[in-house]
Amino acid sequence: MMRPPAQITLAEWDRLHERSRAAGRREPAFGGPLGRHVQDGDVGLLRLRFDNSPAALDLWNFLLTEEQRLFAARAAGRAIVGTMKDLGTVPVMAYSLPGVTAFYPDGAWWIPCIMEREAGLLAIADSLGIGESFCPVRAMLGAFESGAHFPEPDLLTCSVGAVCDDFSAIAQRLEKLGRNILWWQVPHRRPPDRGEAGVPLPGGLEAPLEQVALVRGELARVRAALQELSGRELSDGDLRAGIRAANGIRAVLRELRETVFRAEIAPLPALELLVAEMMALHFCSDRDAALEVLAGLLDEVRRRVAAGAGFGAPDAARVFWVNPVADLAVMNLLEECGGRICGTEFLFTHALDAIPRDLPPMEALARTALSDPMVGPAADRARRICADARRFGAEAVLISRIPGASHCALEGTIIADVVARELGLPTVEIEVPSVSNAVSPALVTRLTALVETVRMRRS
Amino acid sequence: MKRVFYASPLVPSELIRAHGFLPMMGAGGSFRGSGPVPDAAGVCAFLRAFVNEACASDEAAAVVLTTECDQMRRGGELAAVHCDVPLFLMDVPATRGAPAVQAAYVGELRRLGRFLVALGGTRPSDEDIWDAMAEADQSRRTSFPSVALVEGVPLALLGGHVSGRNGELAAEIERCGGRIVLDGTDRGARTRPAPLRARSAPDDPYDELARVYFDALPTVCERPNERLYDWLRAALAESGARGLVLLRYVWCDLWHAELAELERAFDLPVLDIDLCGEELSPRNRTRVQALIEALQVRT
User: Fold this and answer.
1) Sequence-distant (≥ 6) Cβ neighbours of residue A154 within 8 angstroms
2) Which of A100, A323, A337, B173 has a 20 to 30 Å separation from A411 between CA atoms?
3) Least Cα separation, residue B29 to chain A (angstroms)
4) CB proximity A217 to B under 8 Å
């Protein structure tokens, strides 16, 4: 029987978990009460309100056990690849090889939110000259230095060129601290000039043939490094199988998003949707388990939609959310302020789009990498946001700035301009630090104002 | 002659000249001007000054921005929408060495050429470009980056974009008893292109431009940026500088992130001057003074 949807505290989840366990619910190997993560130092969880479905519990437990999975992978003799910045392409290649586990050290940017001061990662970054004027991804530097959150990778890759300056600068700092990094070039994506040969990219974009060829060549260097690391050939057949598996996860996520955004009543809170989407990047270090977790979440959402059950009122303001937040607690504020998620663009749409299967695998991966929203003009992002907002019936666009992030200084203005021009929707920009308690009243005010604006426009 | 404004030393000025335009590098001093780039939190003051100044110029035929930094990319987008002056965004790769990457840079130079022709510039032959390159090379051989001849504590200046603020800082250093013996900013010795090679008949001028600019100039954006440190190590030793002044704009992550490594890599005091665009602040003046006084005491 389906549990009526609700957002509950961690203590409530632990009581619920105990009852579920007593009732005989079987959990995956990474399952258990959420409270144990707090005992391990994840005190930031105490600030969150969680979806009360068993599928959401699995999602959280899967996310919060990733560090253990990575250390277990190292202990089991698997090769560990740290894939920085490209958000979604290199892990597809790495997981095409047996015995290789890939992850994004970039994901450490959530550790200060989850662990608050317990981790001390930002203090380490400070001590290494990467202070508060940088994006919260600087926590990654602290995570590398502390060695407590993931094993030292056997291979580190980083896409550079048309990427954010913060990340490029921090990764360079990391190299100066003694890590070898395989830098691979990704050009600034542009449309083909008149008379120049172009090729279609996932997401409805187009790029010059020469840019795709450059990326394909750069990814060939990554492929060679992966082969050397694993000691075996990474064949086209292996890559095709890896692409097929990644596409399977992407397909589940696309259906999850479509179902959530189109539902009359939001069947999943914004917070859990963000966590689910993040699984697309490196499958939370276990591709098979990621698929099971996401499929379970999709089943739950389908059941809720069929039952007309969900979160918030049916007239909740339908908000399109742009950019991920460093503090997960802010996603809870959306529902608290009378809104619901109705479209997202968390900077990695290229990790959600299907990788073309009718092309040679390296060509397909190159096109995918080049469709990264970060490597192209912000106007490209804005056009996709508009198309999706129109498709899902969004009534407002919320742009979440990442403090210190070089791309956020101007891209919000560009996106807001296009949204206003093409859709006439209200937009609001908020800035979310890693721990937002101090600015929470201001964030609530801005979110509430956005929701009220939506309601006024309806009448 | 109409002007083409550009900000990066990796844009060859002789290519602009060969197309019949006057190349203008960097920004002046009008950091208060308005234009397509707003004075908003997180926006690089140099980007704002450069783009707004160029867009406001009656003599501007075009603005050339490069993708070396994130803010330039976004600023270019804003200018393209809100400014009538044609804009060209040139993709400059961050890595070096791979033939495909160098070919990408060459391809961007050719695109820049086509853009300038489309603006009404002359269509230079390869011979014309070689002539412009030879002239620029000759000019570089006979002129050297300006170095103060006054007495004082020898200091090296390092940093990126060039604006009217550089001159103010140099004057302040001299006023406080220092002198700049090494200019490692975008208008100094660091960005001096390599000497032109003797030409063979079939040589492509664009390939040679890539060699003297792209292959030769050590930049902070290069990954890895070891060449910047190699250059600095040699240049500091040769110059006899006793201190290093890093001149950067607030929100320039690329230079800011190097500060700690600069302090570690060289056995010199490093002074971090962060500019937000307006005139050198009292805080920065005091810090310049303190550095020079400390070095005078050590003598």
Assistant:
1) A79, A80, A81, A229
2) A337
3) 22
4) yes
For chain A, list the domains and their CATH numbers: 66-237 (3.40.50.11890), 244-458 (3.40.50.11900)
| Interface contact A156, partner B, CB < 8 A | no
CA distance A164 to A382: 17
Query: Contact B70/A406 with Cβ under 8 angstroms?
Result: yes
Of B254, B246, B225, give the one whose Cα is nearest residue A169: B254
Give per-residue pLDDT as tens, A168-219. Answer: 999 999 999 999 999 999 999 999 999 999 999 999 999 999 999 999 999 9
As a whole number of angstroms, the distance between CA A112 and CA A172 comes to: 22
Residue B148: its pLDDT value, please?
53
CA distance B38 to B78: 9
Q: Collect all residues with Cβ–Cβ distance below 8 Å to B46 and sequence separation of at least 6.
A: B7, B27, B160, B161, B163, B249, B252, B277
Eight-state DSSP code of residue B269: -
Span A359-407, pLDDT tens digits: 999 999 999 999 999 999 999 999 999 999 999 999 999 999 999 998 9
**How many other CB atoms are there within 10 angstroms of residue B25's CB atom?**
20
Nearest CA to CA, how far is B34 from chain A (Å)?
A: 15
pLDDT number for residue A125: 97
Are A375 and A86 spatial neighbours (Cβ–Cβ below 8 Å)? no
Query: What stretch of H or E contains A213?
Result: helix A209-230
- Identify residue A67 by its one-letter amino acid code: E
- The partner residue sitting opposite B257, judged by closest CB among A162, A163, A169, is A169
Angle at B293 (CA atoms; ends B287, B297), nearest 5 degrees = 145
**Which three-class secondary structure state does DSSP give residue A368?**
helix
**Average pLDDT of the residues of chain A:** 96
Contact call for B71 and A161, based on CB within 8 A: no
* SS3 state at B5: strand
Nearest Cβ partner of B224 from A163, A172, A413? A172
**Residues A119, A103: Cα–Cα separation, whole Å:** 19
Chains A and B: how many Cβ contacts under 8 Å?
A: 139
- Give the pLDDT means over successive 10-residue stretches in chain B (299 positions): 94 98 84 84 90 92 96 92 95 96 98 98 96 95 65 93 80 92 93 91 91 97 98 97 94 96 95 83 90 87
Are B119 and B62 in contact by the 8 Å Cβ rule? The answer is: yes
**For A149, which DSSP code?**
S
Whether the CB of A189 is below 8 Å from some CB of chain B: the reply is no
Separation of alpha carbons A144 and A151, rounded Å: 9
- Which amino acid belongs to residue A382? A
The alpha-carbon radius of gyration of chain A (Å, integer) is 21
Cβ distance of B95 and A160 shorter than 8 Å: yes
For residue A95, the one-letter residue type is Y
Task: Dihedral sign for Cα B174, B180, B185, B186, please.
Answer: positive
Q: Which residue stretches of A352-439 are H helix?
A: 361-370, 378-392, 408-422
Per the rule left: phi > 0, alpha: psi between -120 and 50, beta: everything else, B71 is alpha
Residue among A445, A260, A227 at smallest CA distance from A343? A260
What is this model's ipTM?
0.95
Give tens-digit pLDDT for A335-364: 999 999 999 999 999 999 999 999 999 999
| Residue that the structure tokens 């070919």 belong to | B103
| Token pair for B133 | 């390159």
The SS3 assignment for B87 reads strand
> For residue A73, what is the enclosing H or E element?
helix A66-75
